[in-house]
Design goal:
This protein is mainly β. The strands form four sheets. It has an 18-stranded antiparallel β-sheet that branches. It has a four-stranded antiparallel β-sheet with strand order 25-18-19-26, with no helix packed on it. A two-stranded antiparallel sheet has the order 21-24. A hairpin with a 5-residue loop joins strand 11 and strand 12. The radius of gyration is 37 Å and the shape is rod-shaped. It starts with 25 loop residues before the first strand and ends in a 10-residue tail after the last strand.
Length: 350
């Protein structure tokens, strides 16, 4: 911000009267010799004192209080070269104290200023509509503050020279939350994230990424499980990193299992009653890695009290078949440490 008396000479500026002696007291107009401004207002003892307006030849101006010839007190200053305007307190020609800055490029600041820059506590709305409320130093966000971003994310924490740094909490528009350490505007250090998918990670972060993120999953147990109708069963899994180490800092992944039946040919005189296939919802058979096919549509039973096609649909229409042994699964497809799915798959036979 320019101090009083600065400006740019222009041949196209307004034509002012020749210089003359400034008024002694009262109200008067004076054009300063060998300078670029004109004053109109109150005088006292031959100095600008009281309320007045100082006009610069480049189109800039100040209007407000003067004390002993200096811009001091409440006033309004407009800079033609930037288009910005400050309304508030001035000391010896500079914005100092509290005030409001309106930016030509868009946006607005309301709060404390020192020597013409944002300093102290304030409220800033930038040209994109993003809102910051908190501490400023050297015209930058610095210290504790809250920020509402244009994508709906909210941050509450520490800032260093316009970047998130220190401890802070980020609440994303999608429901995800991160709380922990920041450096250079990214997750860095110890922190915890609860992702909107249900996945959580608590541990070390480096440049915005988990340092010990799970990339693989193995299912522990037999390759094929025979499940009796109505009996619960458990599936145990392990989350592994790239080198095979167990990931201790991550949890919340959901393991998806598809329900199906295995074709079994029975003698005509057999007394064994197996589930019946709902023929109206037949789909393409799924090839399993165990040497047989699965039927990915609901199953039903002639016995009373057994889950019907509609009730079983949620378990029967999952995306992937049940896998056993130590076979590794991609982390993007499956999630979870341990799931008990007994009643959901009680009407299915493997």
């Amino acid at each position: 911000m320019a101090a009083a008396g600065e400006g740019t000479q222009s041949s196209r500026g307004p034509r002012w009267d020749p210089p003359r002696r400034p008024p002694r007291d009262g109200y008067g107009v004076y054009v300063y010799p060998n300078s670029f401004f004109r004053y109109e207002g109150e005088w006292k003892g031959g100095k600008k004192h009281g309320h007045g307006k100082l006009l610069f030849k480049d189109g800039s101006y100040y209007e407000g209080a003067f004390v002993d010839g200096e811009i001091t007190g409440e006033g309004r200053r407009h800079w033609a070269w930037s288009g910005d305007t400050f309304s508030g307190q001035f000391v010896l020609g500079e914005p100092q104290g509290r005030g409001v800055i309106e930016y030509k490029v868009g946006g607005r600041y309301e709060g404390e200023v020192s020597h013409g820059v944002r300093e102290g506590h304030g409220f800033l709305v930038d040209r994109d509509g993003q809102v910051y409320q908190g501490s400023f130093h050297g015209n930058k966000r610095h210290g504790p503050g809250q920020m509402l971003f244009k994508n709906g994310d909210k941050y509450d924490g520490d800032w260093v020279r316009d970047q998130r740094q220190g401890h802070g909490v980020l609440r994303c528009a999608d429901g995800s939350t991160y709380e922990g350490q920041w450096h250079s505007d990214v997750f860095s250090g110890l922190g915890s994230m609860a992702h909107c998918s249900g996945l959580t990670y608590s541990g070390l972060w480096i440049n915005g990424h988990p340092a010990e993120q799970a990339t693989k999953m193995v299912i522990l147990g037999p390759e094929v499980m025979e499940v009796a109708q109505g009996c619960p069963f458990s599936v145990h899994v392990q989350l592994l990193q790239d080198q095979g180490e167990i990931a201790q800092s991550e949890r919340g992944r959901v393991l998806q299992i598809s329900a199906a039946v295995r074709y079994v040919q029975l003698p005509a005189h057999s007394d064994v009653s197996f589930f019946q296939v709902d023929r109206d919802n037949q789909e393409t058979l799924i090839q399993t890695p165990f040497g047989f096919e699965c039927i990915p549509y609901p199953v039903s039973s002639p016995e009373a009290g057994v889950l019907g096609p509609t009730a079983a649909r949620g378990a029967a229409e999952a995306d992937v078949p049940l896998r056993g042994g130590d076979e590794e699964l991609d982390s993007d497809a499956l999630h979870g440490q341990e799931d008990t799915l007994g009643d959901q798959l009680g009407s299915s036979l493997f």
